[in-house]
Design brief:
The protein is of the alpha/beta class. The protein is built from 13 helices and 19 strands. Strands 10-9-6-11-14-15-17-18 form an 8-stranded mixed sheet, with helices on both faces. A 5-stranded parallel sheet has the order 2-1-3-4-5, sandwiched between helices. A two-stranded antiparallel ribbon has the order 7-8. Bound molecules: cytidine-5'-triphosphate.
């Protein structure tokens, strides 16, 4: 259902601009409110008057209007529930992929946080050129971009090799996506934003060596993927890991050192309703990173180490009402007591304890055995399970906390 939806339709310089006129008409017929932004070269194909007549709104082309008023791209972007760029030319796709913004349409695209759908339109050679392919790949990795042809819902045949999708199919596609979103809303964590950390951090000794740990990132990734299946939108800040097939709905931020993880987490934390710090952050780093590779010294080598920032402690200090902050604790002795102390010290809502005494638990492997401890010292013990199953227990626990 597109009834009542506010849709920004971007039209770029392609002969398929004529199909965009039909698209405007069908969107309006479906009950949507449509505002059209054209790139300057789109005007060579179809006159703006066609779209303003069909959409019953002025068409936006330049940053200023002939009578000197400013077309505010941020306002346009905020107004929209979705943005559809159809036809999307090779030129506009390339600019979108790299963040260029030399016209009103691109500036609005860069300001938009709503979903952006693009319907590529160009000749076969341009579409199959490696540069265009690389740009489309890049766009696909951006969280709010959907390229229907690649999405399985519209067979790529409909696009031919770059031929723009038929307006009827675009309408069909958009309505389906919208329905899907409505269903998503019924999930326990829909509308919630989550921040998860995973993996180790590497602290450089010199250009070729580092101090690290055995964490694989599996636990954090399993949690992030589970949060997505429960409806949350998830950002995963991860250290160096070797897992590649992570759910593409997750926004990935790759870092190397504890300091970099700290900076990324502090930035993302303000937006997060739920934060789970499962990364195995290095507690120490060499005081300096040698510029050149350290040579084998006769007398051996002594490294002076200093503390890395304790990310979780800092987030605990910044935590506001309504934010849920969950840490991990890896303990070798006095497990419960140490974990409970960490929970208090770091101002957490709960802590997930794994003990090195439990066979099959902890970093690296596919399984884990956890205990969740909350602020009232209530403990829940779980069996040894696959990390994907442990993630379900943790996410169920989170959902139950949010219900309270
Ligand atoms: N953590 C962090 N920043 C650090 C070290 C740890 O944010 N520099 C987080 C981890 O992601 C984990 C929690 O703190 O969620 C506990 O990590 P753990 O290594 O068990 O505890 P530490 O606080 O480092 O204390 P210790 O090593 O002395 O047990």
């Amino acid at each position: 259902m597109l009834q009542g939806k506010k849709i920004l339709l971007g039209i770029t310089g392609s002969i398929a601009a004529y199909k965009a006129a039909v698209l405007v008409r069908l969107l309006v017929k479906a009950g949507a409110e449509v505002k059209v932004i054209m790139t300057p070269s789109a005007k060579d194909f179809v006159a703006p008057l066609t779209y303003s007549t069909l959409s019953k709104h002025p068409v936006y082309i330049d940053f200023s209007t002939p009578d000197g008023k400013w077309n505010n791209h941020v306002e346009l972007a905020n107004w929209a529930d979705m943005m559809v760029i159809a036809p999307a030319s090779a030129n506009t796709i390339a600019k979108m992929a790299t963040g260029l913004c030399d016209n009103l349409l691109l500036a609005t695209y860069l300001s938009a946080s709503c979903p952006v759908y693009i319907a590529p339109a160009m000749d076969r050679e341009m579409y199959t050129h490696l540069s265009t392919k690389a740009n489309l790949e890049r766009l696909k990795s951006y969280k709010n971009i959907v390229i229907p042809a690649e999405d399985g819902e519209l067979a790529s045949g409909l696009f031919g090799e770059g031929r723009m999708a038929e307006p009827e199919h675009i309408i069909d596609f958009l309505s389906k996506r919208d329905n899907q979103k409505k269903n998503d809303k019924k999930l326990p964590l829909s509308g919630k934003k989550a921040l998860v950390t995973a993996g180790p951090t590497y602290e450089a000794i010199d250009p070729v060596r580092f101090i690290g740990n055995f964490s694989s990132g599996k636990m954090g990734i399993a949690i992030a993927e589970r949060l997505v299946s429960e409806g949350a939108s998830v950002t995963l800040v991860h250290g160096p890991i070797h897992i590649t097939n992570i759910n593409p709905a997750i926004k990935l931020i790759g870092v190397t050192s504890a300091q970099e993880m700290h900076d990324a987490c502090v930035k993302e934390f303000t937006k997060a309703d739920i934060t789970i710090m499962s990364a195995a952050v290095a507690d120490f780093r060499p005081i300096t990173k040698a510029i050149e590779k350290i040579k084998k010294a006769d007398a051996g080598l002594t490294l002076k180490l200093v503390h890395t920032p304790d990310i979780l402690t800092e987030l605990g200090k910044k935590k506001k009402a309504g934010q849920l902050l969950i840490g991990f604790a890896l303990e070798t002795n006095n497990e419960q007591k140490n974990a409970a102390e960490k929970l208090k010290k770091k101002n957490l809502d709960a802590i997930v304890l794994n003990s090195t005494h439990n066979k099959g638990a902890g970093p690296g492997g596919d399984t884990n055995k956890i205990t969740i401890i909350d602020r009232n010292n209530k403990t829940i013990n779980f069996e040894l399970k696959l990390k994907t199953e442990v993630a379900k227990d943790i996410v169920n626990y989170i959902a139950s906390c949010l219900k309270k």
